[in-house]
Amino acid sequence: MLCGEKNVRGRKVRPPVKPVERFKKGNFRAISKAFAAIGVLTILTGFVPAYAQSSPNAEYIRLGGRVIATEHAAATPTFSVAAGSYTSAQTVTISTTSSGASIRYTTDGTTPSSTIGTLYTGAITVSTTATLKAVAYGYNYVTSGVASATYTISVVTISVNPTAASVVQGGTQQFSATVTGTPNTAVTWSVVSGTGTISSSGLYTAPTGSSSGHTETVRVTSEAVPTVYAEATVTVSGVTVSINPTSASIAAGGTQQFSATVAGAANTAVTWSVVSGPGTISSSGLYTATGSGLTRTIRTTSQAVPTAYAEATVTVYEVAVSVSPATASILHGGTQQFSATVSGTTNTAVTWSVVSGSGTITSSGLYSALRTDSNGYTATVKATSQANSSAYGTAAVTVAADQQPHVTSVSPSSGSGIGGTFVFAGTDADGGTDISAFQFTFSSTDSSKQCHVMYWVDGPSFVLFNDSDSGTSPNIYNGGSTSNSYCTVSGGTLTTNGNTRSLSINVSFTSAFVGTKNTYLSVSDWSGAYEGYVQVGSWTAMTQAAMPMFSLAAGTYTSDQTVTLSTATGGASIRYTTDGTSPTEGAGNLYTGPITVDRSETVKAVAYGTYYLASPVASATYTMQAVTPTFSVASGTYAGAFSLTLSTTTTGATIHYTTDGSTPTSNSTTYTGAITVSSSATVKAVAVKAGYSDSGVATATYVIVAVAVSPTSANIPHGGTQQFSAAVTGTGNTAVTWSVASGPGSISSAGLYTAPSTTSSGFTATVRATSQALTSAYGSATVTVGANQQPHVTSVSPSSGSGSGGTFVFTGTDADGGTDINAFQFTFTNDDWSKQCHVMYWVDGSSFVLFNDNDSGTSPNIYNGGSTSNSYCTVSGASVSTSGNTRSLSISVSFTTAFAGAKNTDLAVSDWAGSYEGYVQVGSWTVQ
What is the torsional sign of CA 821, 822, 828, 831? Predict the structure, then answer.
């Protein structure tokens, strides 16, 4: 029946505030009215038709000559274990007194039904805290009430840490325990096998006294539940003793330090003793030998376990001294190094002496023969043990008679140049050490120019004669230098090898000495014997060419360069290298024209000629470095991605770059074209070219402010809402401004979009979040609002029952979502509509009205859960909940005695677009 039309009895119904269709009642109401009219409602007693015997749980009524079965509610299930707190898992059985009824149950607190929950088939084990709910149901049974019991399971457990340990005898191990499932975490500690002890705090102490190992068991027991315990295994190690060294050989009166290691006991102290042979040992293990030629046994014993010990052997031997070499032959003034070997004692020191013949010997055994005696002789040297003065060794030294020295050579014997190091050598049958002086000269053929030197070995010193060779410069000692017009002489050093003695001395010639020169040498010995001047070589004195010059100064360059070389020495040639090696007259590239420098390199050059010595090497290092790249976009803050190009002015250079702030190398990404910068990044770039040093690193930091909206798309109904969020990156200011960029609807400052409810057509809207830090940066999302669809009446709960009222939950569904339902209209009415409890509820205002007794007017609007009454009922406490496509209205209704009797329950729902489903009967209620 449409609003405003007459009902089946012709009474006009007051139109509701919003259009709602009241449908005609169904067949059930018509049948009920017909049965009531003819008065044929009779309880059958003692009569059950044969065809009804399959419903043993039903009662039967005769209705207008027909027999109808009526169902009873199944008995509510019971639990074998009462609700409560337990310290172990419980086994629960469920039963019902209703014969043939089935049971379904849940353990997660949800309400079971005949179709919801687990079918009960046997006892249930409850091992964790849970709420058990159950219902009974079956053929011709109405589903029972819900049985519920909450079980709190607190299982007491205990663990020990560590579960296994190894300790030494007398050692300790701290154990700890963890108790769960009870507030009383106190424990009791005990040793259940073994002889160790354990404190109330879990500190275990191992026993002592055994040299072998064994295992013990520690137990920790919960004081709350003494049957709950945990155990740990302790391995107590056996005691062992080791000695170091295990054997030793020492001289009589010598000492040997021993050490002992005790394992397996906390007490590592030992006792030392000599168990066989003479000698003594201290409490710290220092053994002192007495006697010789015997073997002793040393013992170290554990003080913790006296049966545990270790032993070592000591061999004591006699003292003996030997000298090496046993014989030697040397020249006058010569030396001989002797060495002594001492055995039988740890004190190997000796005292050296010359017991016959001439000469001296040092404390280290270096014997020196006399230079003042030209006759030959024999001497005896002795090495005496400082540990035992009666033990000594000797050696014999034969010193030969002195003989005349001879000139040998000069090296180099010939050559050319401005000088160098010359080595003059002489020999003597009495040994090289018998040579006492060298005299040499570099002289022109007419002797008009000379570099004449006298060198004395014993100084050591030398003099350089004047230009005229008529006088000398002052004595030069210990490697100094002196000069005349023709040369500079410096640094003399001596070496001796057998019968040869050599003088090495530095000579540098002046330009006034140019030409061919003869080299002469004379040597003499300590006895005054000598050999006069002997020509041993010749030398061509030369001048040095001027060092080359470079047209381009050394330094760093960013492009290829050209270098020319020159020298101030006319007619000289130049050779050069570019690999850092030094050129010579015969090595390197002959310079013929300008050199191209196209890579980092060191150019070295030398000048030389037929009558010139090679000049000093000139050097210039050229560093070729690529030019640092430049960026097309400067560092800064930007909205969204942009294109970045890199460039360098170094021809042929390759650019490599990074975008993570790391320093680029030639292995980094190669720049081949514009880079897209889409997120905040530090771009670094370097230019690289073969032969060039890498350029400096160019750096640019870009902050990309980006706004991402989530979700990026949404589907909602008319009048629905969608919460959006925005994530702002690239700035510390993450605030945004929300707007609807296209389409209808509105959005709050917090991003809550609301679709309009005034149109039934579908549409698409775009919402935008704009960065408050950078207004050119924004993100968007799309909202699709579908075409509005008609809502539908679903149910009322309870759908049937009796009493003076209660809380009723009216439910409707909408394909656009439960939030699209904006109004409920329900009525409790008798069959002739003469009495009604008729309510209209609006979701958007959280308000409702109760129509008057005659359904012709309404009470004032009631807001936020208040109450109102007419002659038949009081309505109060309305609240709305939504789940998915369903919206429910919960409201309390209390009926008056004037409303007693059977009533039908009807419901209508409407949505924001004005679509509705009119009254549908959803239940019945008997007012008592």
Answer: negative
Tokens linked to 914: 């004005």
CB burial of 416-440 (b: ≥16 within 10 Å; e: otherwise) equals ebbbeebebbbbbebbbbbbbbbbb
Helices (H) and strands (E) in the chain, counts: 1, 92
- Map residue 34 onto helix, strand or coil: helix
- 145-160: buried (b, 16+ CB within 10 Å) or exposed (e) per residue? ebbbbebebeebebeb
- Per the DSSP assignment, residues forming a β-bridge with 904 are 829, 924
Report the C-alpha gap between 520 and 367 in whole angstroms: 35
Q: Which two tokens stand for residue 500?
A: 């040869």
Q: Give residue 499's identity as a one-letter amino acid code.
A: N
As a whole number of angstroms, the distance between CA 423 and CA 851 comes to 138
Report which secondary-structure segment, H or E, holds 880.
strand 873-883
Tokens of 344: 């039988």
Tokens of 504: 């090495």
Burial class (CB in 10 A: 0-12, 13-18, 19+), 305: buried
pLDDT at 17 over 80: no
Share of the chain above pLDDT 90, in %: 66
Helix (H, G, I), strand (E, B) or coil at 324: strand
Whether residue 802 contacts residue 923, with contact meaning beta carbons closer than 8 Å, is answered with: no
Cβ partners under 8 Å of residue 326, min gap 6: 395, 396
Cα Rg, the chain, nearest whole Å: 60
Asked whether the beta carbons of 723 and 748 are under 8 A apart, the reply is no
Q: How many CB atoms lie within 10 A of CB 213?
A: 15
Q: How far apart are CA 49 and CA 47, in angstroms?
A: 6
Are 98 and 108 in contact by the 8 Å Cβ rule? The answer is no
Query: Residue 243: what residue type?
Result: I
**Alpha-carbon distance 551 to 605, whole Å?**
13
Please choose, from the candidates 345, 426, 358, 433, the residue with its C-alpha nearest in 3D space to the C-alpha of residue 391.
345
Q: In whole angstroms, what separates CA 464 from the centre of its chain?
A: 75
Residue 876 and residue 859: Cα distance in Å, rounded?
A: 13
Nearest Cα to 317, choosing from 258, 382, 256, 389? 256
Residues 6+ apart with CB under 8 A from 252: 289, 290, 291, 292, 316, 317, 318, 319, 344, 345
Residue type, 840: M
Alpha-carbon torsion, ordered 734, 737, 742, 747, to 10 deg: 110
User: Residue 59 has what pLDDT?
Assistant: 47
pLDDT tens sequence across 460-519: 999 999 988 888 888 988 778 999 999 999 999 999 999 999 999 999 998 788 789 999
Closest to 13 measured CA to CA, from 854, 877, 867, 873: 854
Average pLDDT, the chain: 87
Q: How far apart are CA 131 and CA 549, in angstroms?
A: 102
pLDDT tens digit sequence for 391-432: 899 999 998 776 789 999 999 999 988 899 999 999 988 789
235 strand-pairing partners? 166, 215
Does the structure show a pLDDT above 90 at 844? no
| Contacts of range 897-900, beta carbons closer than 8 Å, 24 or more positions apart | 898/835, 898/871, 898/872, 899/828, 899/835, 899/837, 899/871, 899/872, 899/873, 899/927, 900/927, 900/928
Count other C-beta atoms under 10 Å from residue 767's C-beta: 25
Extract the tokens encoding 306. Answer: 């006296």
DSSP state of 30: H
- Give residue 479's Cα distance to chain centre: 63
Q: What whole-number distance in Å separates Cα of residue 169 and Cα of residue 212?
A: 10
CA dihedral 634, 638, 640, 644 (to 10 degrees): 0
The answer to whether 25 touches 920, Cβ cutoff 8 Å, is no
Residue 32 host element (H or E):
helix 27-38
Q: Name the residue type at position 919.
A: Y
